[in-house]
Amino acid sequence: MNKVTAAITAVGKYVPDYILTNKELETMVETNDEWITSRTGIKERRILKEEEGKGTSYLAIKSAEDLLAKSNLDPTEIEMVILCTATPDMQAASTGAFVASEIGAVNAFAFDLESACSSFLYGLSVAAGYIESGRYKKILLIGADMNSSMIDYTDRATCIIFGDGAGAVLVEPTTDGNGLQDEIMRTDGSGREFLNVPAGGSVMPATDETVKDRLHFARQDGQTVFKNAVFNMADVCEKILKKNGLSNENVDWLAAHQANKRIVEATARRMKLDASKVMLNIQNYGNTTSATLPLLLADYEKQLKKGDTVILAAFGGGFSWGSIYFKWCYNS
Whole-prediction pTM value? Predict the structure, then answer.
């Protein structure tokens, strides 16, 4: 009997209409287009305005609807919805459950998965486990974040980096040798002090003082995060190649978390990959956290061919990071 693996069989995406350019940021904080572009590779990012929607669930629903329309999938056939996000609509109530209901996935059970920028990568691992077990055959995996909800637009260290967006993939079983081949996942909890939103959780519940002190916005030690991301994401990609006997010639695509163009380039250099094999869209969206990987797959879908070797990688707050060796499953 052929081995069952988890295949991505459809993709969808959504980004808000409003474009926040580097030029506009120049009017908001002390920065400039040349500095942002040279340091991050970002030219613009999408922002979900209040008149467009109501939060992360809106982004997730729109990306799921795009996938459903493109694939002609009946949402009642979906058995599970995994929503990967660092910015849920609210505490306690599951955002994933709301998304599933809104798209008509009435036969699915749904939950949220959060591991900062590694959320979607971890979610793909979880979905693959359910598929390989044989218990489920259609899983909708969504990465969505409304990062603008936790960004202080007077803090130039963070406001230049993040944007809003969502991407969705359908995960199904295959026995043709494609799909998820291997993974390496890592975490280091000592890193959480370097990238976080201090208030609003159980350690520091919301008070008048936390609001006054602007503790509900994302904060990061940029230099420490950058160094750890460069080393760990590149390291884990190199390890997964070695573990599976792959060389740079065997890799067709690198789909790396879009946090900073220099981090992606450093990972590609470590893997000795030509720039033509590196997926890149950070210039258009900035860092969309949980959405970067599915947005990459959606943007490059027409270039992907059945059997292509794709190395997915991410690094995020926690710290959390990892890499997945994946073989693409269809021709667009």
Answer: 0.96
